[in-house]
Design a protein that fits this description.
- This is NAD(P)H:quinone oxidoreductase.
- The protein is of the alpha/beta class and about 220 residues long.
- Helix content is about 45%, strand content about 15%.
- It contains eleven helices and six strands.
- Strands 1, 2, 3, 4, 5 and 6 form a six-stranded parallel β-sheet that branches.
- Helix 3 packs across helix 11.
- It is globular and about 50 Å long.
Amino acid sequence: MGILSKLFGNSSDKETEKMTNVKLAVIYYSMGGTNYQLSQWAAEGAKEAGAEVKVLKVPELAPQSVIEGNPGWKAHVEATKDVPEVKLEDLEWADAIIFSVPTRFGNMPAQMKQFLDTTGGLWFNGKLVNKVVSAMSSAQNPHGGQEATILSLYTTMYHWGAIVAAPGYTDPVTFGAGGNPYGTSVTVGQDGKMIEDVQAAVKHQAKRTVTVAEWVKKGNQ
């Protein structure tokens, strides 16, 4: 058995097994479309594993005048106008949640933070305990704060009592995507295109998240 087989096992075989009754909310914020695309890949991977999936965006806080002044931002907002905005009920509905956000000075965007700050009532009533969570991020250079951004999201999740399902090094695709064990992250060039090929890593992360969520659901039955 090779070192990779010893380290990763047969994760690809495990991912072909269908999940049952796992509900996943993929919640994102995106200006130019990168994290929207990451969310779409996550949804595809989760559906391939048999999960029921909702892709949801957090509400925009920026003034419309600012958005209008940025052609790329304006175009993305228009292209995703039919994506539903996340509601607190969606968090109650979900067994698992994947967050996808760009970095803002090594932290999550204000739009995502504002939404998370509205979850106090759910937290107080124990509605977020044992949610299985994972996160992804992007930045304009390889060391632009992607890892710190993901960890900032996980800090909130620890307060929820959620269960973090980071990808770690559970599959070789993590290395092909840049090797971030906390969650898939990607570099976005000045042309707005992703530099690393992260699609497979995103789908693996999504499948791992719903797999862990199924284990938790079965354990609670």
